[in-house]
Design brief:
The structure is a single chain. The chain has helices at residues 2-22, 100-111; strands at 31-36, 39-44, 50-58, 61-70, 73-77, 81-85, 115-120, 125-131, 134-135, 140-146, 149-150, 165-172. By secondary structure, it is an alpha+beta fold.
């Protein structure tokens, strides 16, 4: 009787261990491959919330800086309307990912400030025009950088990751 209980416990423990090693863990933004026995499983996790620091630097100094959780989502601006802003813009990524402009949108909504941007269908992206009432106008624009590096594509196309520093900086020509 005791050996039967020990055998059942061992089988249950082994099955639980196998299930935990092959089951999807916490959502991540990249592809992982896990091996168990003779089988290989591939899981892709996308658009998981990430915690980033969003900084908005205006012509006269710091306008906003705070850590926020964000993910790619539909964004609505007064000028640009509602459009996706989840990394799939311009076919930049095959699946949804968190983006700098989505982070700005979450920061604004959660912290009581506004931003506006024009939607450019030809780029499948927004151009940020105004943040906290500060407009780039004809002689300046809002540049976007991640970890100090300007984004090579638009703010709805660049992927951001946990711990990134996302900056929107008023830049004159």
């Amino acid at each position: 009787m005791r050996s039967t209980l020990l055998r059942r416990a061992a089988v249950t423990t082994a099955a639980l261990g196998l299930a935990l090693t092959t089951a999807p863990a916490v959502a991540q933004t990249e592809t992982e491959t896990a091996s168990a026995s003779a089988y290989t499983y591939t899981y892709t996790y996308t658009n998981a919330p990430v915690r980033v620091t969003v900084t908005v630097q205006g012509p006269d100094g710091l306008l906003f800086q705070k850590k926020i959780f964000t993910w790619g989502h539909d964004v609505t601006t007064a000028t640009g309307g509602t459009h996706k802003c989840d990394g799939t813009n311009g076919s930049a990524h095959a699946t949804k990912v968190p983006t700098p402009t989505a982070a700005l949108d979450h920061a604004a909504k959660r912290n009581g400030f506004s931003w506006d941007g024009t939607w450019y269908a030809s780029f499948d992206d927004y151009a940020v025009e105004t943040v906290k009432g500060v407009n780039g106008g004809g002689s300046a624009y809002w540049s976007i950088s991640v970890n100090g590096t300007p984004t090579p594509v638009g703010g709805c196309q660049s992927e951001i990751e946990n711990g990134d520093q996302v900056a929107f900086t008023w830049t004159s020509f």
